[in-house]
Specification:
The complex is a heterotrimer of chains A (238), B (580) and C (282). Chain A is of the alpha/beta class. Chain A is 37% helix and 26% strand. Chain A has a domain of 150 residues: P-loop containing nucleotide triphosphate hydrolases (Rossmann fold, 3-Layer(aba) Sandwich), CATH 3.40.50.300. In chain A, the strands form two sheets. A six-stranded mixed beta sheet of chain A has the order 6-7-8-3-9-10, with helices on both faces. In chain A, strand 4 and strand 5 form a beta hairpin. In chain A, helix 2 runs parallel beside helix 6 and helix 4 runs antiparallel to helix 6. The longest helix of chain A is centred in the last third of the chain and has 16 residues. Chain A is globular and about 45 Å long. In chain B, helix 6 packs across helix 7, helix 11 runs antiparallel to helix 12 and helix 18 packs across helix 19. In chain B, a hairpin with a 2-residue loop joins strand 3 and strand 4. By secondary structure, chain C is mainly α. In chain C, 78% of the residues lie in helices and 4% in strands. In chain C, strand 2 and strand 3 form a beta hairpin. The longest helix of chain C has 32 residues. Chain C is globular and about 60 Å long. The two termini of chain C are 36 Å apart. Classes of the chains: A alpha/beta (238), B alpha/beta (580), C mainly alpha (282).
């Protein structure tokens, strides 16, 4: 469904991604792990249309998205839960959700989508008129995911959703992600919490310094010293 | 014989001073008076607004304050004309500094706010003047005031007065441009927060520049009051003065001391072509139109476009070759350089730091690590004075840093780099590095600071790029520019924020060697890093943060092997799923 | 100082409310473009006066009912606002430089007004001018009532649109985080064009109210800048109700100051209020 072929993306003056290729089939749950500064956020932002692609192709169902205007990526069925949530803090909880379904075809389904999101995240139903900025970290993350779900995506992009959250909340959230994927939505998850991410994913990529250095099933990857070394340095091996 | 710039100004002054003796018709002297008059107004405006970027739309208010000071003192109280001029300078300067004292402390929107408030001030002052005895509505007639007979005719006298004023203003503008104050103002223009953290006393400098700017405008007003001899509120406080002054400076180039003079000459000439007869209105429209065109197509002004780095090049050629710098001074004997006690910091609901306590020992390299969002950068921001902590204390060399302005913290010997480099975009690489040497702990004078800067540029391998602008550097070079800036301040404590992120492996090796060399020269280093290889190789000790709390401390290998640290980085897997 | 009569105080209060409503109406467009588009548009004032002069021309010389002139002026101004924003967007200039450009534009428009209509005072004599209501001992002139009604209606309407319509929510979202809004389908460029047009049309409406109640002169443009900006800043950028409330507060303060002391100290009031708010908010 999603084909990223040898893309090169810049971050400011420097090149952040070199020759990166990944693919995600419909309904798959794929993970990208790697140390900080590896380019994970740049990759997700490129797929969401937030970063322009300097070389290579980005295609959805065979359709090349390279030259597509930024505000039309959503219509392709791609929705993003950005790093740091990036909620519209000036808007209320409900307004953030409604904005998630701004695109034409999602707007008609707004009522149903809202019900669905509320059933997944009951806490959002309690304070629909609260400004989004007043929610706790965990609730904000749920709102951000809910906002993306309102767009009725076929591919959900999650950028470091566990950032700044207490471990118990992270557990809850990953359970929800599994549920969403179970409902048929493909998920691309970028995460720092490597152990949990690898438990969720069917397949994973390891990104280091802008390049894909490994790909495969989580059990294979964890067996390799790659991941431990990338995150912890040589000490962890001993 | 090399004539310095002030010398050239003097020579030009002498040449112009000869003009009255040519016995030209009064019209020429009057025209020159106007040119000099506008040069004074535009150049004085530029001292604050052009150099620091705080555009004032109210130069007319301070000009008007000067006019009415002279009008009142000379007209109503019979004070001799020349004595009213210092009074006019004082009144305008104090008035401006009063406004600045309130507005310059505001944090957000300061540029726009300053522009609008100065615009509003003009009309408030006009109202006050109109409604009190100062003017009262019918204007002030100064026909009876005696003009000192400096030269034979009134037009010649005004010519000479304006000439003297122009020379004084140009000298002052040039002097500030070359001085520490000027460098500080230009740094404020590019990035006020960084300038403050590097030791520039931003509030004081802005206030000072504003005072000088208003004072000069006041004197110009005083002279002009007698020139027009019938002063009215409408003419004095019209919108023409602010917009003309802005346009002249922007056209000539706001970043150069001579820019406004160039613009003033051009515009006065143009305006003259319009003032005859019906075209006065068209002339005003032309001013507005030219302003728009200049902003859109020539934002750096005539001088900025055609003489981009002339000064920079000339200056560096005159500099002697770099002399080796003194090593970082060791001050005091305390083994603990920095103590952080229970520091907490929250941002709208997110607790970035939660009771962080740690010590940094003199001469060590301390690695500060932790997952994303653990608070590492926030800690650096608090120690360097970018943020104020909600709770806890930071003690540096035995002195509590609580409540100190960031520039004072820099002065006391702490320097930092930024994870995303924030160089001063319009200063050359050399000037970027010289600034912390001037304003930071080292507190050198300009010549010594530039020598010092050259030394550190060589140390970091940037010597060839000394005269380039930061935008010409690649990421690696910009990171090293950050490093050079931190080093040039001779600080005892260096806070390095992710210096290595985004670098290639070879560049990382080079950076590691450099950091080691810096420590060997006597500096103490705290560095935040994600590149584990570098942390392992460099750090004497590391501190691990997670969710804003310190979770481990000790030798690198030992700490990174501890289970709680591994968990913090890799996460705890859910039960039930075994992995190899 | 003799205390004025209750009637005088009451009438002062009313005139303060009326002038405050006009401050609010002038400030509405300004607040929208400053708060949502990050552009400080000084030319808003010149545009309002241009609208006033056009109303004057169409009504006095053309014989139209002043209120009907809006049917011509508002759409033209909307188009003008869209055009201006579209042109300026092609040059990526900083928000501060857009302030400078608007400064230049102000002077151009003002000069144009002076060239066409000269610096002589112009007064629109309309049927509404003479009409007034009477409640007890207090007079409520119709032009001022029209201004008050228009200001309240438009402020509420804008507030409701921003609050409840999809377009309004999208505008608020885009002004806070344009890239993420785009990631959800919001076309920020089109939205800002619409907003610019709307702000310009609001200037035209304010112009109508100006023409109904005031004598026009080109130099008067600058008189309003300080007060209205104070109302916008005190009311909060981007808040549609803010300028109206702040404007009325300022207007009433001015009116009471005028009634209790000398009549001509009014401009000082708004300035002092602004400085006070700045000091407190710090």
């Amino acid at each position: 469904m999603l084909e990223v072929d040898r893309i090169q993306v810049a971050y400011g003056a420097a090149t952040a991604l070199w020759d990166v290729s990944i693919r995600i089939a419909a309904g798959e749950l794929v993970c990208v792990v790697g140390p900080n500064g590896a380019g994970k956020t740049t990759l997700i932002n490129a797929i969401a249309g937030l970063n322009p692609i300097a070389a290579g192709t980005l295609a959805m169902d065979g359709r090349n998205l390279n030259r597509l205007p930024h505000n039309q990526f959503c219509d392709q069925g791609i929705a993003i839960v950005p790093e740091g949530r990036r909620l519209f803090t000036g808007l209320t909880v409900r307004e953030n959700l409604e904005l998630g379904s701004y695109r034409r075809s999602a707007r008609t389904q707004r009522r149903q989508s809202l019900d669905r999101v509320y059933s997944i995240f009951p806490v959002l139903r309690e304070r629909p008129d609260a400004p989004a900025g007043t929610l706790s970290g965990g609730q904000q993350q749920m709102l951000a995911i809910g906002r993306a779900l309102m767009a009725q995506p076929r591919l959900l992009l999650l950028d470091e959703p566990s950032l700044g959250l207490a471990p118990s909340v992270v557990l809850e959230m990953f359970k929800v992600v599994r549920e969403i994927n179970g409902g048929g939505v493909a998920v691309l998850l970028v995460e720092q919490n490597v152990a949990m991410a690898l438990e969720l994913a069917a397949r994973a990529y390891v990104l280091e310094e802008g390049r894909i250095v490994a790909e495969g099933a989580p059990s294979e990857l964890l067996a390799q010293p790659h991941i431990r070394r990338a995150y912890l340095g040589d000490a962890a091996d001993s | 014989m090399r004539i310095s710039v002030p010398g050239w100004i003097g020579v030009a002054g002498l040449a112009f001073a000869a003009v009255p003796f040519l016995e030209l018709p009064a019209f020429y002297e009057t025209f020159m008076y106007l040119v000099f008059h506008w040069i004074v107004l535009a150049t004085s405006w530029n001292i604050l607004s052009g150099y620091s970027g705080y555009f004032s739309f109210g130069h007319g208010a301070f000009f008007g304050a000067g006019i009415y000071t002279t009008a009142t003192l000379a007209g109503s109280y019979g004070v001799p004309f020349l004595w009213t001029l210092p009074a006019a300078a004082l009144v305008s300067a104090l008035f401006g500094m009063g406004i600045g004292a309130v507005v310059f402390r505001v944090g957000q929107l300061r540029g726009e706010l300053f522009a609008l408030i100065t615009l509003a001030v003009t009309f408030v002052l006009a109202t006050i003047v109109l409604n009190t005895r100062i003017d009262g509505g019918q204007g002030v007639n100064l026909g009876g005031v005696a003009l000192p007979a400096i030269l034979s005719s009134p037009s010649s006298t005004f010519y000479v007065l304006a000439l003297a004023m122009m020379l004084a203003t140009l000298w002052i503008a040039y002097g500030i441009y070359r001085s520490k104050l000027g460098t500080g103002l230009f740094a404020i223009h590019d990035d006020e927060d960084v300038a403050e953290v590097m030791g520039v006393p931003t509030f004081r400098y802005k206030l000072l520049a504003f005072g000088v700017s208003c004072g000069l405008a006041g004197v110009a007003g005083g002279i002009h009051a007698l020139f027009v001899s019938y002063v009215t509120v409408g003419e004095t406080f019209s919108i023409l003065v602010p917009i003309t002054v802005v346009l002249m400076s922007v056209l000539g180039g706001t970043r150069h001391w001579l820019g406004p003079a160039v613009g003033a000459t051009v515009i006065t000439g143009l305006l003259y072509a319009f003032t005859a007869g019906d075209y006065a209105v068209a002339g005003r429209a032309a001013l507005g139109f030219i302003l728009i065109v200049v902003i859109l197509f020539l934002p750096e002004g005539l001088l900025g476009r055609f003489i981009p780095r002339l000064q920079g090049r000339r200056r560096s050629a005159a500099m002697p070759a770099a002399a080796p710098a003194a090593p970082a001074p060791r001050r005091g004997v305390t083994a603990t350089l920095l103590e952080v006690h229970g520091v907490s910091k929250a941002f709208s609901g997110v607790q970035a730091l939660d009771g962080v306590t740690l010590q940094v020992r003199r001469g060590e390299i301390l690695g500060l690590v932790g997952p994303n969002g653990s608070g590492k950068s926030t800690l650096i921001n608090v120690v360097s004075g970018h943020y104020r902590s909600n709770d806890g204390r930071v003690v540096f060399e035995g002195r509590d840093l609580g409540g100190l302005a960031a520039h004072r913290i820099a002065r006391s010997g702490i320097a930092r780099t930024y994870q995303i480099p924030r160089p001063f975009a319009h200063l050359s690489v050399l000037q970027n590095v010289a600034l912390p040497a001037m304003f930071g702990h080292a507190a050198l004078d300009r010549a010594a600071a530039e020598r010092e800067a050259r030394h550190w540029l060589e140390f970091t391998g940037l010597a060839a790029k000394a005269d380039a602008l930061p935008e010409d550097l690649n990421l690696h070079q910009r990171k090293f520019l950050e490093l050079a800036r931190a080093l040039a301040s001779h600080s005892n404590l260096l806070l390095l924020d992710e210096v290595l992120s985004g670098l290639t492996p070879a560049e990382i090796d080079h950076a590691i060697r450099t950091v080691r060399a810096i420590r060997d020269r006597g500096a103490t280093i705290v560095f935040v890093e994600h590149v584990m290889r570098a942390v392992m190789e460099l750090a004497d000790r590391i501190v691990v943060l997670n969710y804003g709390r310190v979770i481990a401390e000790g030798g690198p290998k030992e700490v990174m092997g501890r289970p709680e640290v591994v968990t913090a980085y890799l996460g705890k897997p859910q039960t039930g799923k075994p992995h190899a | 100082m003799t205390l004025p009569s209750l009637t005088l105080l009451g009438q002062s209060l009313l005139s303060g409310i009326f002038i405050g409503a006009l401050y609010g109406l002038l400030g509405l467009g300004l607040s929208l473009s400053w708060g949502l588009l990050r552009q400080i548009n000084l030319a808003h004032f010149a545009l309002a006066f241009l609208g006033a002069y056009l109303t004057y021309q169409l009504a006095s010389v053309g014989g139209m009912d002043p209120l009907l002139t809006l049917a011509i002026v508002a759409p033209c101004f909307f188009a003008f606002g869209v055009l201006m924003h579209w042109l300026l967007a092609r040059f990526s200039i900083s928000p501060f430089n857009s302030l400078l450009v608007s400064f230049g534009l102000t002077v151009i428009v003002e000069s144009m007004i002076q060239w066409i209509w000269t610096a002589d005072y112009r007064r629109l004599e309309s049927a509404y001018g003479g009409m007034k209501f009477k409640i007890g001992t207090l007079y409520l002139p119709v032009p001022e009532m029209i201004t008050l009604a228009t200001a309240v209606a438009l402020s509420l309407l804008t507030w409701a649109a921003l609050r409840y319509t999809d377009l309004g929510k999208a505008m608020r979202a885009a002004s806070e985080d344009a890239p993420i809004a785009a990631a959800f389908g919001v076309n920020e460029r089109v939205l800002s064009l619409i907003l610019s047009g709307y702000a310009a049309a609001l200037a035209g409406v304010a112009g109508l109210c100006l023409a109904l109640s005031f004598t026009l002169a080109p130099s008067q443009i600058y008189v309003w800048i300080g007060v209205v900006f104070a109302a916008v800043m005190i009311g909060g950028l981007g808040n549609p109700i803010g300028p109206l409330v702040a404007g009325v507060v300022i207007g009433v303060s001015e009116a009471l100051t005028m009634a209790l002391t000398a009549p001509t100290w009014a401009p000082l009031v708004s300035f002092s209020l602004l400085i006070a708010v700045l000091l407190v908010r710090r």
